[in-house]
Amino acid sequence: MKAKKSITVYNEKQSFKNTPISNFYISYYKDRVRQINRIDNHRHTYYEVIWVKDGKGLHTIDFKDYQFCGSCLFLLHPKNVHRIYKETPASGGVIKFNDHFFVNDNVHSKFLLQYGVFDDIDVLPVIHLNTEEQQTINDFFEIMSKEAFHHNAFTPPILLNLLKSFLLKVYQIKKNQCAINDISDHRFVKFRQFQELLEAYLTEHHNAGFYAEKLQISTKTLSNYCKLISSKTAQDLIKERLILEAKRMLIYSELSVKEVAYHLGFNDYAYFTRFFTVNVSLTPTDFKKAKTEFL
After folding, report:
1. Residue 276: how many CB atoms within 10 A of its CB?
2. Is residue 20 one of the residues assigned to a domain?
3. 179 in a domain, yes or no?
4. Is 43 within 8 Å of 81 (Cβ atoms)?
5. Is residue 97 a part of any domain in this protein?
6. pLDDT of 20-40, one tens digit each?
7. Contact 117, 74 (CB under 8 A)
8. Which of 28, 131, 272, 286 has the CA that lies 20 to 30 A from 173?
9. 287 φ, ψ (degrees, to nearest 5)
10. Are residues 19 and 146 in the same domain?
């Protein structure tokens, strides 16, 4: 897929400055009044957690606007194209890291990166924090910042474990309304396996029945598990994932509408157009035209 040149991509060399730790960066920030915004559409080659301690504005992530005011977390993975407009100066902290920081690590870390905190299926890229959660995030930033600053031979493995603990806490906050408190619960395990399968087969299979059969459970059972954890049925999650990928391809590639339909596994171009129009309230062509005007 040929990417459009209008999207700026920031890499580690540009963004991981003044850090002796490979593939990891942490810092605090405080905006200056005249330099609070970088409102170009852009993405990164790494994962990023932005903690806003104070501030107000609008963050657009993958075509959806998220208002923020006060303490919150932005959870961004390399696929996300986003831009931020701040109405007031903000302060907080930022953590950046890439897959290499988890090299040779276990399956739980893979889940945290791909199907937990940073997720295209159960999407929640902005988490608003209450007072207790804010203090927890503050404590994590403090201990990680101190460890990174006093760098020694043991710092990388210590930071790896601190980062994993931090991401687990973020996932716990993200899922604080979920009835399942144990990630080893068989229902949670099946949901995670469904997420993995959907990413693997998204362009080939669009029906929940296929994934239920792969998981050796009924379609009804799969949907019940999905509703328990995400408040959405399996078919809803499949539909939303297809729409998100279609939007990305339409705006951030040079593919035609027919080519996007083909790449997503729609053999009938007319059916893809109807599917997109019903769910977005714009035809693919109109959506592409409307969004590219603002790039």
Report:
1. 26
2. yes
3. no
4. yes
5. yes
6. 788 899 999 998 766 666 667
7. no
8. 28
9. -65, -45
10. yes
Domain that includes residue 152, residue range: 8-174
How many structural domains does the chain have?
2
Phi and psi angles of residue 93, each rounded to the nearest 5 degrees, phi first: -150, 165
How many CB atoms lie under 10 A from the CB of residue 105?
A: 15
Q: pLDDT digits over 277-295, tens only?
A: 999 999 999 999 887 755 5
The angle, 0 to 180 degrees and rounded to 10, between the axes of the packed helices 284-292 and 234-252 is 50
**Domain final position from 174, 197, 221:** 174
190 and 129: one domain?
no
- Is the Cβ–Cβ distance between 262 and 246 less than 8 Å? no
Contact 96, 44 (CB under 8 A): yes
Rounded distance between C-alpha atoms, residue 267 and residue 213, angstroms: 23
User: Do residues 237 and 121 lie in contact, with contact meaning Cβ atoms separated by under 8 Å?
Assistant: yes
CATH number of the CATH domain containing 38: 2.60.120.280
- How far apart are the C-alpha atoms of 180 and 224, rounded to whole Å? 13
Give backbone dihedrals phi and psi of 227, rounded to 5 degrees, phi first: -65, -35
Pairwise CA distance, residues 169 & 56, whole Å? 24
| Cα of 291 vs its chain's centroid, Å | 21
